[in-house]
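Q: What would this chain look like folded?
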Amino acid sequence: MFSDRPASKIKKILMPFGIWLIAGAAAEIIGVIAVGILMKKGVADVPSNLLFMLEEAHARFEYPMLIFRNIASFPFLVRMFRADNARISVNLPVLAPYIERVEFFHRSLAKGMGDSENRRNRQAAKKIVWFLSFILPGIFYAFAGNLVLHYTGLTAESSAAQVPPFTVWVLLFELIAAPVLEELLCRGLIYRSMRTYMGILKALFFSAVCFGIFHLDPVQSLYAFVFGLVLADLYEISGSLAAVVLTHMAANAIGLLVTYVPAVNQFVLTNGIPVLMVSLVLTPVSVVLIGLTAGKEK
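A: My prediction, written as structure tokens:
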């Protein structure tokens, strides 16, 4: 049990980062040994060639290594998340009021239908609203954030300017591994702990700072910091990791489309200013509307 001393609070907040780093380092060592075997070097050669083999592992297997790092830390973070569920007495709101409003609206449209058909329609409405409501902020932010970086010239300064070849590993990492792990770590553990100790506003800000630092690259950190504010707010609204994972997946999917599909990239750049203006407006608007519809008590 952690005390109320500042040092204990900081330890609790940052412990998930430590777990991620330690598990990731262990995964890196295993990966280096595997690369050594692939390079027909013995396990005994690993210590003397560690840096070279580490560089070789990242050069040849960058995205498989990233996925492996996430997999290595995932069970430990899930265990911490479950322990926090029992320890932290924070009542995050759920989507029940939101779904009730959808049901009421849909009942008004479905008058005269049979009970079974009406029930099926309500279930369909729930699913549509769930997906659309949390996908849209991710889509709008991805367009807005990437275009801001493009027009300010910061994209060229980012490590993301070096686009890796498209592979299934890139797809798996960007759409599954990264959103799930990062939301579990930064919203499910760090934000929730900060919320307990600091209150909502400070937790929103400092968890976004952590999310930015998590991305290491200065330009990506700026993008991630603002996105972290959006994601933490959506988590506060929904109380659901699944919801913010979905938002994160949507943003990464747009990034992949713009990066790897020439037609999408051309359309966005050709219509950059209108797309930017619309996205800058709709990102906060979509978050606010989700909050209002969810019946969140301020």
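The mean pLDDT is 80.
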